[in-house]
Amino acid sequence: MYLLPQDPTEDKLKGEIQMSFKVFFRTFCILALLVSVPSALWAAEGAEAPVKVAVLPFTMHAPGDMAYLQDGIRDMLTSRIAWQGKVQVVDRAATTQAFQGSKGDLSQAEAVRIGSNLKADYVLFGSVTAMGQSVSIDAKMVPVTGTGEPLPLYAQTKSHDEVIPQVNMFAQQINQKIFKRATDMPQTAAADNEGLGNQNPEILVPDAMQSGDRISYLNPNFIEVTSESSLRQSGVWRSQTFSGGIVGMDVGDLDGDGQVEAVTVTRDEVTVYRRQAQGMKTIAKFTGEKVDRFLSVSLVDTDRDGRAEIYVTNLRRLNKVNPAGSENIYGAGYTDELASMGFQFVGGKLQQIFKNAPYFLNGVDLPKRGKVLLGQAKGSIKDGAFKGDIYEMQLRGGSLSPSVPANLPSRCNVYNFARADINGDHAEETILIDSSNEMLILSATGDQIWKGDRLFAATTNTFEAKVEDRRYNSVDVYAIPSPIVITDLNNDGIPEIVVNRSADSVARFLPNSLKYFDKSEIVSLSWDQLGLVENWKTRDISGMVTAIRLGDLDNNGSTELVGSLVLAKDFLKLWDSKSTIFSYDLNVSKQAPARQ
Q: What is the pTM for the complete model shown?
């Protein structure tokens, strides 16, 4: 092959062109870098930091087998609230560590303090309460900085299956109302369903499942044993959670307007409520002194003016001084004296009618008489809880005094009985709760004709009854039973005994000062000539029922079975516990006989 000689001028020209291109490329890169760096810096400075949310563990007032809900609710809220670049949920481990040491239901101030320590912008906290199959969820989304209004979140479900959908709704409300985020719940659900459809059917439906088995919506590997529709009850309602143990509750018309109010007592507070929507609104309150201890409350229209008065049994602890050098086996530097009091509800306020009445007070429905206020004196620490006869009480002016004896069997005290002709013999039988919380039926002559083998009307609302030797803690206490309701709900002329029954089988062997009751049911009993038989009963109620009443609490023209419930696990600390009010709708008219 013949090659032409290369022109040196051409080589020089190519070299200059290549050099020029290199210089141009380097210059372009430097200029691009100079432009891009400030732009990136400006973009970083202009971007807003994501909002930080601390999701705290929810407080559980539920049986141990529902503890899984605490983690499940927290995980679901975390995944639904998190929004890339917009909302950041504080690390779970850090939140759990900051939450440690907190006991019971958090107050808003405590939750904000925890959120502030975590440097969060919002804190989400709440509680879960289970009562039978019904579950109530109380939650709140609160700004930590104090700017903006808290977002309250409340839901009540009729079955456990409805909890997860309600938590989804909570997340949806938070995203819409707090973060102005369009909901993506339907899309998420659709995506989940699509993902399930692409999985191997042998994984979704294991071999152990039989034809006809229903798959739970919670997880395709769960077999639904009881359908959701069969768990729905005819009507159950629960109020918000209250601080303190509600030891007494009654319902009635306090101002003569035809509307029903509820009155509760805790250790040192008397509170009047009206039901509004799904909650209870406080409309009046009285707080006792530090030496006061309220034991019970009854609403009775003693003066028959169409307005029920409020009667509160109060024990006042007073200091006493023993003679120098003496040793008193009964004393411990104090004495408990009855100082009961009464109130009227006038102009939206509680007005005290009397105070320091030396009687245990209780309203009891007597056949053909209606609800009558009864009173009984306190026994000495040597003799026992109660002294002498039970009297019908009369209110005159500003004083309360006994009128005539109630003529009851000697085993009765002012709290532990009800009266009715339960067997149709035209004589009044006495339904009595003895000191062991066993229920007895006494004939008109005082003879025992029936005795139950379960614990009825049991509570831990106690006071000192008899002291043998305080130096060795030889002290007997009396537990005030929850009320017995006598009614005829089905209007068949046969009285029903509606009473709280404890599912506990261990407490009967413990002294009264150490008993606890964490599961209850309400049962209706009637006489069938051979003894008492069950008409109906509620599902298990998680907690201790301290009172049951009949009344139209929601003022809708229908009667409800209303109760007060202590939620705490440690019933030895009754005053530090949490409580709620609940009701069951009853398919009876307002005019149906309802005695209590």
A: 0.66
